[in-house]
Write a structure and sequence with these properties.
Number of domains: 4
Oligomer: single chain
Largest sheet: 6 strands, antiparallel
Helix content: 25-40%
């Protein structure tokens, strides 16, 4: 006869190992699971969510990528919990109860070398939609540092759903944040200058285990760098105070290799209302030998099935990740237990499907409505990030240049798609112009910027880029007018200030050149080009006095 399943002997070891990390005081879960009484109150709920594999939260399917820190329960563990509930949720003998794990309170990676904390509390409103809030904080280091790890503490476990950690070596993000009170800005879109360094996947979700980078794979933190922290916040029904902290861990060992992030992204998303199986695909072929370290998929509420795979040069397919039932609320990044070799010529591919039918319980619109690509959570996205490590560190530049060309062509294709629908879309005209300029199609780019200004006479970026082209064509009066217009439309554009200064330098007007270069440095003290040109002005003035 099979022995009865009890909490103390059979279930507690599972709960303590796999559930209590979050289901305990001061952590993110809504209730505790540290005692028999805790578990008995939620017994039926526990059995239901583990059988559906909704808990512990882990989206990738086994057998389609071998990931570190896999939180899934085994079939036997799920059956043990099911039997315990079915047999009446018996407590069992006190002697069978194991001791609680010894969790590290505070920083799990140990005492940090530096902690950067949001300087003031942020108040999240009691009600309303989820909030995406971006905070910018200077990182106080007086010399270059090599970062082997970071750790995030949310400052309020109840409302912080996930976080992304970026850095900005310019003042672009800071200037944007300072325009609001309290400082910061909403939305999922960051300035182009805010990036995750050296191909890292620096994110946090409840249950994620912080790790140090392997030897030789630290990333470089320069002085005068800002932390740009993006938080996804859930209102709780009452006002909540949030004050997150980031711990930095340094090493004396400089990096011997650096990762690179390849992002497959589809912009042409247009999902009709009611469609159950809308699909997108995208591919990129690696120009070098590399290894895959980590992967991170992203979409919004309508996504259902996500496939990421590699097509090897010999024609074989290797699955890299499969998510059969995407859940926006449990998105994350995943690190492979061992690096996945990807020889030169490997094609990285994604295939996502979306369900915009009434039967999708996560559909935010009932009845369903047409959904296109966009940054709001009620729009849709489709992204798959790969953290790539070049086999030969010297080939990272080749990968970077090749992938950047892919991105520019991809961007141009999307802008042409938008302009086919609305030729008067000034922003799309300007972005198409930028892409054409990067591809060396200067005349085509010039016409795009002119079209952007016709559609919107206040399109600042179009004036700046026109000035750039006109200066190259030695049409200095026209270039001067374009740069001055760009500066009038955006006085904080340090590049426009510096470009106008360079134009004055070419004309020999040293006083005006000096004024503009100083203005550029006032906006961005790290503008190396403006600083170099200011030195040329000083040298020219000194020589004129001889």
């Amino acid at each position: 006869m099979t022995a009865a399943v009890t909490f103390n002997k059979d279930v507690a070891p599972i709960v303590f190992e796999h559930c209590a990390l979050c289901h305990r005081p001061t952590q993110s879960a809504p209730f505790n699971l540290l005692t028999y009484q805790d578990a008995r109150k939620h017994a039926k709920q526990i059995a239901e969510v583990v059988e559906k594999r909704y808990m512990p939260p882990w989206l990738p399917e086994k057998g389609h990528g071998d990931f570190a820190d896999d939180r899934t329960l085994s079939t036997n563990q799920i059956e043990t919990i099911r039997r315990w509930v079915a047999e009446g949720s018996v407590e069992g003998a006190a002697a069978d109860l194991p001791g609680l794990p010894k969790w590290t309170e505070g920083w799990r990676l140990g005492p940090p070398d530096l902690v950067v904390k949001l300087p003031q509390l942020y108040t999240l409103a009691a009600e309303g939609k989820d909030v995406y809030r971006n905070f910018v904080v200077p990182i106080p280091v007086s010399a270059r540092k090599y970062v082997k790890g970071v750790e995030f503490l949310p400052g309020n476990w109840k409302v912080v759903h996930h976080a992304f950690i970026n850095v900005d070596r310019t003042r672009g993000s800071r200037r944007r944040a300072e325009k609001e009170n309290p400082p910061g800005f909403d939305g999922m879109t960051l300035p182009e200058t805010a990036t995750m360094p050296a191909g890292q996947l620096l994110g946090w979700q409840p249950g994620k285990v912080p790790r140090f980078a392997p030897d030789g794979l630290a990333w470089i933190l320069e002085t005068n760098t800002d932390l740009v922290l993006q938080l996804h916040l859930h209102p709780s029904g009452k006002p909540e105070l949030v004050q997150p902290s980031i711990a930095f861990y340094f090493t004396e060992q400089p990096p011997t290799n650096m990762g690179f992030r390849v992002n497959l992204q589809v912009f042409k998303i247009d999902i009709p209302a009611g469609v159950k199986d809308y699909a997108i695909d995208e591919r990129y072929t690696l120009p070098i030998d590399a290894s895959l370290i980590g992967i991170s998929p992203h979409a919004h509420y309508l996504a259902k099935r996500m496939e990421g795979y590699a097509l090897l040069p010999d024609g074989t397919r290797r699955d890299l990740i499969l998510i059969k039932d995407w859940d926006f609320n449990w998105q994350g990044d995943y690190r492979y237990a061992n690096p996945v070799p990807l020889p030169k010529g490997t094609t990285l591919a994604m295939h996502f499907t979306y369900d915009n039918s009434p039967g999708n319980i996560r559909n935010p619109s009932q009845p369903p409505k047409q959904v296109r690509y966009g940054l709001q959570t009620t729009d849709e996205m489709g992204e798959l990030w790969f953290q790539i490590m070049p086999r030969n560190p010297s080939e990272r530049t080749r990968l970077e240049e090749d992938f950047y060309g892919y991105l520019v062509r991809h961007e141009l294709d999307y802008e042409e798609y938008l302009l086919a629908q609305n030729p008067k879309d000034a922003a799309a005209q300007a972005r198409a112009g930028n892409a054409l300029l990067h591809l060396g199609r200067v005349e085509d780019a010039f016409h795009r910027f002119q079209a952007a200004i016709r559609a919107d006479p206040n399109c600042q970026v179009a004036y700046y880029q026109l000035g750039f082209i006109l200066q190259r064509l030695n049409k200095l009066p026209e270039a001067e007018l374009a740069f001055e217009t760009a500066m009038r439309l955006d006085p904080d554009d340090y590049q426009a200030q510096g470009s106008l200064g360079y134009l004055y330098l070419r004309k020999g007007d040293l006083d005006k050149a000096e004024e503009r270069f100083k203005a550029a440095l006032g906006l961005n003290p790290d503008d190396a080009v403006a600083r170099q040109n200011l030195g040329l002005v000083a040298k020219a003035k000194a020589e004129s006095k001889k």
